[in-house]
## 1
Amino acid sequence: MKKIAGFIVRFQYLVLTIFLCLLVYSGLSIKKVNIEYDISAYLPSSTDTAQAIEIMDKEFTTYGTTIVVVDNISYQKAYELKEEILKLDGVKSLPFENTQKYFNNSKALFKVTFEGNASDPVSVKAYNDMKELLSPYKSLESVSLVDNYADSLAHDMKFIVLLAAVVIILVLLFTSRSYAEVIVLPIVFIVAAILNMGTNYWFGTISFVSNSICIILQLALAIDYSIILLHRFIEECEGNPERSKKNSMIEALSKSIPEILGSSLTTISGLMALTCMTFSLGKDLGFVLTKAILWSIVTVLFLMPCLLLMFSNAIEKTRHKNFVPKIDFVGKSIVKVRYLIVVLFLGLVGVGAYLNFKVDYCYTNNGIEGFHQTEVQKANKVISENFGYQNQFVIVIPNGDYAKQKEILRMMEKKPYINEALGLANIEVKDGYYLCDSINYQDLVKILNIDRDLSKMLFYYYAFEHEDYSIIVNNNIDTYKVTIIDLLDTVFKLKDENFIQIPADIEEDFNKLRDELEDGKKQLLGPNYSRMVFNLNKPEEGKETFATIDELTKEIKAMCPEAICGGNSMVAYDLNSSFMSDNLIISILTIAFVFIILLFNFHSWGLPILLVLVIQGAIFINFGIPVLMSQNLFFFVYLIANAIQMGATIDYAIVISGRYTELRKTEDKKTSVVKSLTEAFPTIISSGAILVIAALLIGVISSDLLISSIGYTISRGTIISILSVMLVLPVLLYIFDKPLKYTMFKSRKKKKTKMTREEKSLLMDITRTFYLQWKEIERNNETKDKLIDTSDDSQDLEENIEENLAEAEAKEEENEENSK
């Protein structure tokens, strides 16, 4: 470690140059990072949702849509407004009539479809023009054409980072020992954050969750590691004032490296447990956040020593009194009421563990219950109360079997909770004839109002084109039937090639029918699959909705095993299935990884049990609170907060346990508890306060409910962990002091200290001096019999000593290998 530290200090300008180059590279790469805002993109490819999204993106045209509810308006005014919207260039359709489906309680529901997709400039212009028309009215959007989510989130995060920087400075001013420290630590954090954000480009695309949370985790950990090195450096400088600053830094860095690496392993292990999820957002979070921690470590261990040496004089000159109060009274007080604290903690943990099984998880952004409602949530509430739920459900089946499609549509239309159904098989062409119906030439006469001979000719042509020669040879045209959708394709083709002429009196209706058919086929018929779209009059998620989805999928797949289901409720259903299997695995792996690391760290199996018990207890309490507040919890908030609370805040427990173990060698139990709390308090309050306040800022400021709930949960969990570590852990260490001794691993025989080169040289000088004095005595014939018998030659004696030393060193090395 000293060699590594010596290299860093010796080549500090080279290190600074490398970091400058990395900063330029990362700064240029930040804009190249792609952010994925759709959580469903991370579902396993085997789920219906993932398959449905892939098929629909490839095979169908999806027009841009928006759903708006206009309040406090009369039907006549709403109808006039609807006509104005329909006149806008780029608006394709807007169904509206005087029924409860579209008008109720002085509220109008507009479902606008645009001529292009959501990103088409024509659609965007029409949408903006529509917004202008609606501006005088009180309106809410349930579904917006233009998604400003990314811009809104980016704006929030910039503001949060700015406030977080102010928080860091204020906390450090309170906990630091010198004002110049406040300059160094934020620089370290900013550099680590830029390096991590730029190198996210290596992953190609990362989730918006990783991109948002990363900055806060890095904020807490980079400062945490920085404080460890800073305090070591100050201790070395104060303990050895005659030593140069560079040598003090080498000593401080060599001692900090193992401590920082050991501390980071618990956090990394908690995050890497997320990568074991079947839901690939876990891998995204695990890898991106782990990379953030690694950059924090690299920045603290390589860049910060250079900065501290540069600012060392300023740190000395700007020293101030310690503002962090002594908390000896806390340690003395908790020892007195130790049994009461343990009983209360175990009681809270028990209640929290019970409530954890009652947590109501949600899986869509619109389903999150936060301290404030978004505009979309307000709109959804108004719409559901007045017009029913607007919840699209999709079924995709392979092409070819129109009868199967018709069967599925009829089954779905009978369900009381399905109030809209659209598919090729239920699109009416005329007078009870549907697109997927099979008709003969006489039926075509009724549908198109053409003469019988033309109709017969069209059927003969269709039979010839599809190689049904038996129909032509046997003249079975009277019984020959063809599906309307396939026959109309042939009719349109022949008209385009001028093989047939449509009578002028029906040409307008014919062209209208053609436009409707082409439009329907774009949305419902692809090269390989057909799509059916329904409105499910139920909430997007919840136990009742999931039970309905479970029932529907079983019936649909029984009728058509190749059918694939999609829609918002299907996304939530698949996420729920994935989460339930992942949750237990991740929790067990996180605890196991952390326990194993602590096992090797403390050389004891008893102490890790206490530490994990305290932090896991704090986690139970944290996630029991939403149940008491009657709030649901977004499923991934639980996994992220659980990993961070277990991985990051257990460092506080390690600090207190480490100091208690060290003090216990020379002090009694009570004194060790009091001193360990007092000595650990500045470190815990510095790191903990920054994490609490920064996460709280995210919760308060972020307009996105998912990011906001993550902030609130991490902030609350960190406070609970700090209180548990400061009040409960010392008491447990006091109570179980004697049993913990029996859980320590027995150390092997202490190794002999290896002789340094200076000590060898000194021993040779002493031996040579002794020998010369002995020769002088021998020459004077004085006290010969009292002297030991040894070699006659100084060179022989030196060689003999060197051989003995070599043998001793070899034996020491052999003992070291055996010990390992």
## 2
Amino acid sequence: MDTVTQALLGGAVGFAVAGKISPRKAVLWGAAIAILPDLDVFIPYDNDLTAITHHRSWSHSWLIQTLLAPLFAWLLYRFDKTVQFKHWWLLVWFALITHSGLDALTVYGTQLFWPFMPSPYSGGSVFIIDPVYTLPLLVGFIAIVFRPNTITSQRLIKTGFTLSCVYLVWGLLAQNWVSYNAKRDLAAQHIKTEKILVTATPFNTLLWRILVVDNDVYYEGFRSVFDGSGLDGSGPIKFTQYKRNSSELINALQHSDALKRLSWFTNGFYSVKQVENSIIATDLRMGLEPIYFFRYHIAQTENHAINVISPMRIDSERRTKQGVTWTWQRIWDPTAQFNSVSNDTNS
């Protein structure tokens, strides 16, 4: 989730722990502590793929955060003893673990149990920026900062925190409903599935993207909570098939550390394609066909041989206004089409 939202969540958590002792201090320290995990973006790494896949690793691990919380609490207690050590401890711990927990609900991938290395958890039930989630927290935060001791301010932050939690629950329920419909429609259309991922589209939890991977192909479909009629979401989801990779490419890249890392990080939701002399690996989870946020040049062909190179991120096409407009239209209209021409991802 974006850093501003993480700070606001930390402020609400801080108030829940120590708001009765010092409301303003609780929200400000909660906000400050909550942004600490994201400081890992400033750590330099050897290449672009390593940097992306190490973000949300050790700094977001519940195990590491649980070990560090007493140390941070001790430092804060030495600085300010008007708040008891146990309250500092709880404030720090909850601010850190709720940061990671919220991130895990997005699709990016969060390594909650680092240094153990299962594929990062990428829930996908909320987008990385969602104003509906953030705004209630913002109202309560501002109220406490400027008028910390009024009943109205305390009601606002409690209500905002409650509404934000309810919104996350709604996202999980909607995601499960869409997953149920997607699996039913895939079976009805005789589409084989190896993996299925259902994710919220930008800035909302009303329109959902369904990504299906099956060996050398993948499928993309969309479902709005307003599609069809009735609780069963009647009206089949339309899935469009795209080429994912070729056996020849995968065999040639079987010793590529970059491809292994990407496969682990995305839990298999990636594609590999050759564009002229370049081998491009794409994280299929973030974006929509044919525009994706994370694409990497991982190998080069020369004299009919494939040479692995240090992975370099490729700048993605930016069509934010068009994407947001289409998302809004598609929420209400199942026939709305996203018209974009890709220079390579559809090849």
## 3
Amino acid sequence: MNLKNSQWLPILGSLVFFAAIAVFFTLPVFTENQALSQGDIIQYRGGAQEMYNFQKSTGEKVYWTNSMFGGMPLYQAGARYDYNFLQQIDQHVIRFLPRPADYIFLLLSGFFFLSMVLFRHWKYALLGAVMFGLGTYFFIIIEAGHNSKVHAIAYFAPLMASILLIFRGKYLTGLVLTTIFMALQIAANHPQMTYYFGFVVLFYLIFELVRAIRQQQIPHFLKAAAFAFAGLVLAIGINSTPLLATYDYGERSIRGQNDITLLQGAQAQGLEKDYITQWSYGVAETMNLWIPNFMGGGSMEPDTYKTQTRQAIERNVQTEEEYNYLMQVYPYLSTYWGQQPFTSGPAYQGAVVVFLFILALFVVRGRYKWWLLAATILSIVLAWGKNFMPLTDFFIDYIPLYNKFRAVSSILVIAEFAMPLLAAIGVYIFFTDAEITHDQRQKYLLFAGGGTLAFLLLFYFMAPAMFSFGTAFDMQLPDYLRRGITADRIAMFRADTLRSLIFGALVLGLLLLWHFSKFTNRTIIVLSIALLSLIDLSGVNKRYLNAENFIPKAWVDNPFPTQMSERMLRIAQQGNPTVMQIAHKIPYNQAVQQISAQDPGHYRVFNMAGSTFNETNTSYYASSIGGYHGVKLRNFQNIIDVYFSNDSVQDQRLGVRGQMQNILHMLNTKYVIAGSNQEPQVMPNPQALGNAWFVPQVQQIDNADQAILAIGSIDASQTAITATPVQSNNLGADGSITLTSYHPDRMVYQSSNTQNGFGVFSEIFYDGGWTATINGQPTPIIKTNYFLRGLEIPAGENEIIFTFDPPVLRTGGVITLISYAILLAIVAYWAYLFYTDRKRKSNQDLDN
């Protein structure tokens, strides 16, 4: 990528402009010492608190936590790994702005780099960056706290740019950059996004291969593909520790093999299809890419959108009691009428982007058009999920790894990358391709511009007759209320349809001005289009990321307070939903914190006052039966599904009704919190079996279905269930096992028993790194009671130590260092060639 000296100043100015945009969207971070309150990050903080506490007190890395779901690895929940040099550069150099401005800047600047590789001119690169980097979906997931997702997406563009450099013959430069950006994307730790981007690269390679065959350039294609593959291998090597750990965990998680078959609809391997496709985009909902409020926006839009609903209530209520009741229900009447269970907002790509994308289909020729169009179509159709099951079934059943990921609607990120890229290419060719005649350009504008505007205008009038603008829930509402919410949805649709029409018309007008030589300065025209796209996308993005999402930084750092301050009360009373939610749970936080302070031992708490398996308030202060995490251990998920499902029909079919208590006793659940978050009721559980205990009887059951059902009915203090034969039939149960030292990765017990015995430990069985020693001698850990640990313990006084030291971490560390050494050698060779080439050219200049 050779640039003229005149371009460097505009390039620097563009980067400053991107930083200014990032600051604009996150201004409270810079001016008011506030921080973005992100729901998923709040949940993460609660689940990771135990890890933070021990890392701070010991200085050691922690890879296991008992704070969630009885116990689980931290590989996907904040674990730190050795030799993460590139991640440090990413965190402190590349993402130099405070969060979340850093992600916005990275989205913009990364696509700017890709566009510079393609166009070698800053104005087209700036246009492409704005059209991609300000996509509404990215701002929605930033607000929600999906940081790893947006982080991975932000590296799509620079990674693609690096691959393009390889296929343009810049083999070593492309190799180095591909390795670096691929490594950074993997390190962002969102395998689903990295996997989806693989489809983009695959389509590119297919069309490059077709071109190579046609132009008889197979050797170049094979060489370039080899360099790209080498970059991938090196990037994987650099990230080998987290990748190996994640793979190892994945095999034992809900993404892996399921050893039970008694749950209806359960998959033997991977996630269930209903779970994968739960968040499926409706076919018509795809119009959200063009018209943001086509489907009513998000599930919780502001009351300003529901004026006709409110008027319907005020005109039709008969009594004050009825009015008060409906006004309580009113905020929860959703304007969203799509098919997803709920949504934070539409995946709006921009009226300007869609218009230019359609224009590009006429203007662009060759492999780039077919590559990006094919990727876009695949993305949209796969996002339909359960609404287009023939293709979804095929991908789930036959495409490797596809069944490991849920929320198929998120595959729209492919379209959200491909559409602005093709749109930017279209603008570049429209202005620079001398082979396009005046008449052809005019025809393209007529078909693309006139056609899209005519479609939107027709849609504006015809859509209310084409769509119901209603949901199944609406049928439960009184007729007047149903008519009111429908009218509001139609009003939202029409307002945003008109909005998209106006932006499309303005872009068309600018292109026509240039085409008819009314204004010939291409730079101003292109920058004006970029400005329109900026205004278009910013206006929608501010609906979902604005000042209301920022709260005092202290409350973000500690989102589980136990005291209500006057400031918090004041802001909550003003209606800030985030602060209201934090304040609402203060009484519950007080209850858990008090339990932890009065009883500092190692035990578990069962939260029945809230959503047990979707909260980490409990985990912040104590080890919890529940938690919040997208990838639970398979054995514990099966326990949840069998014993905590609250499905009376299933409980009766399996014969486990009323047996949940037995599981709580085994898990050493010393406290149950009932009631509500506002009025929690702490109930001690005197039947909790403790950290470990001896049993006089071991029953061998080989079948996992039988084992998971048996543990609900046995007397766990007297009997243990294993699939492994126990050597001694004369087991003593008169001894004791006491936990003497607790660390998440190392637990020390002291046992005392007069006979050989079998000990059951109230810890989750995980054979991917836990080892046990008795008096320093390695001892096999036996899978007990389906999901716990057991040991055969000799008579006498014994020291028992459980240690979590996964071999994959050591193996990964070695591979990581080797990969870095190879990368440094390549960089050194690349620098040597660059230096010698510059020296050769300098000598030639002197000779001349």
## 4
Amino acid sequence: MSTRSFGARIQRNIDPQLLRGEGSFVDDIPLANALHVAFVRSPYARARITSMDVSAARAHPGVAAVYTADDIGALDREMPLLIPHSSMTDARTQRPLARGDVYYVGQTVAMIVAADRYTAEDAAQLVDVDYEPLDVEIDIEKAVAPGAPLVHATHPNNIAAHFVQVSGDPNAAVRRAEHVTRIRVQVDRSTAAPMECRAVAATFDRVTGELTVWDGTQAPISVRGGLASIFKLDEDKVRVIAPHVGGGFGQKVLLFYPDELLVPMAAMQLGRPVKYIEDRRENFVGSSQERTQIHFIELHALKTGEVVALRDSFLHDTGAFIPYGIAIAQVASTSIAGPYRIPNIWVEFKAVYTPTVPVTPYRGCGRPQSCFAIERAMDQLADDLGLDRFEVRRRNLIGEDQFPYEREGLLFADGLKVKLDSGQYHRALAMMEEALRPADFASRQAKARAEGKYLGLGLAFYVEGTGLGPYEGGHVKVHPITGKVYVNTGLTSQGQGHDTVFAQIVADQMGVNVEDVILVEGDTKAFDWGVATFASRAAVVSGNAIFKTAQIVRRKTLEAAANMLEAQVDDVELRDGGAWIKGTDRHVPLAAIATATNPLRYAFNEAAQAATQFAPASKHDGPPLAEGQHPGLEATDYYSPPCSTWAYGVHGAIVEVDPELCQVRVEKYVCIHDCGNMINPTIVEGQVMGGIAQGFGGALYEKIEFDPSGNMVNASFVDFLMPYATEIPKVEILHLETPSPLNPLGVKGVGEAGCIAVGPVIASGVEDALKTLGGGKFHHVPLTPSMIHAALYGGGA
């Protein structure tokens, strides 16, 4: 038998190509005689456009076209609301180019198309726009107060949505509780900052009527559908290709950014290729961001530490528009109880408009905020009741015999019930205790303190709803010339290793090497149906679709091979690139089987010649293809998950805080993670480690800063702090594998897991390190040296 690929540590197929610098990104696409785009953007957070003169820009040498809202026809409309919800009234979304008013610094006002980017940028400076600035309020707590300046006149108190969910009977539970812990926590705004900024290029063939778009998007099929709709083209006349993409993290799945519509429009109108490559500042001021939430959370408990009720009311900053609806806030609200057995929950949120860059999901999507709230509250509960932090969690964790654990009344972002499907939460906590040895830490902490060193232990659990539907599909085909197995799916990759993990799934079914499975994705001509890469769903939804499809092709292959070898199907096995009669050396290559299953054969290859040796396979009394049969070895199938599957984990750290420099050094960091059955542990660890690195950014460094007038003051890598590799500690990753009962592969998502718990772990550790110095509570991230200094010397953080 061939060695099993599923679960093996196999190097990514794509790495050699990328390491040699042979990747092909949007800016690498050779487009002859291409025009280039630059945008005029609003310098005000909130203003009324009183006039605009583009005549000088249109007259500038090298300019092909200048577009304002008056020039874009059917595109002059508010863009789609992607996820409607009854909690929103008159939800506001952005126009491709501003009409009348602007709502944040960086909003697109006009588009310049010119012979090169330099000319386009010069012409943009010639557009004369007069603005009437309006009052603004950036702070979300002040924005909801009576009399605050409104972002949209249609929304009093800047409330975009108000939603309450209830599980159990929290009022009754509150009455019987013996203790209540109340805290306020805050997580600040950040940005995805992908290595490659967003990019889009387009060509239009007037002879065939075909529009081809190269887009660094996470959702090419959805982009195709939108373009076909708004330009009134048949879908088969629109091809969207997502080539290699240098990171996405959710920022590249917004539908639509203005350039994704305007660049194709210009290509169609001007009859030449048109390209827009976003620069770093534009990425800061024009591409979506996430994170700011302020939670007021209460844990109502017995004196034993058992939590009987949770109440949480939080504000969510949605920016100037709300294209994703309440998705982020809803994920946060349904993750707020974490891995804990809390039977009674009341959770409320208000999504708040602010005159800032619009907010859409960024890796984590509400989970880091809810994790920070519940884990900081659990630490505070332990402190209030004089309990050990490990023990208070142990007393509240869901037990293995309690799965599936349903939070009745709570609906996840997919609109389905919150049902935690499987897990070993107690075992994970025990593994963390073994790794950090908290029982021994107190004496070590005291000894270090005597030497002038301040050590602290941080701890945080998390859960992650993954694998959202509605569906994905897969196509598997054995090539009759080479015998290689081709796989197509509607997703696109931004570094997740799809080409390898999907190949591992198929290789096991077809008995071939992983290197002989070729994945083609990110091209709407390769696969016609699908959703997108987001929400830690690729392995769960596409992986199972591909698995189901590969099983169909496997059955067809075994049946055809049995016919060719004149054997019983049960006596045939697939391995080493062929079909073998078990226990013998009689076999036939996959290429020959694929050729033999096609009644029209080709004579110029070895597979065709080999196929002719199996003359009995071609004997038949009826038509060459029986009713319901298809030529070749290929199939297409789909998978639709019944609901989300819930991954989880626990992070712990030992940190050292320098009270003079107010800096944090991580001495040890441990992550225990469970994403069900692992397809490739190396890729899982890469995903988790990447998430942890971003989590450290959110915990200690990264914060988008606005001045009171709404201008972003750190819109560059000079001013926006990001951790280097030198700031990321060595991480010990330990795995549990608790299969999900919800899908055939037993897998759960992993893409966002690493970033979720880092913030509360660091805050927990710093607080523990400084408790003897009166350092106070750390309920706000990113946790900066200034905040530590204020806590030590200025009265709190």
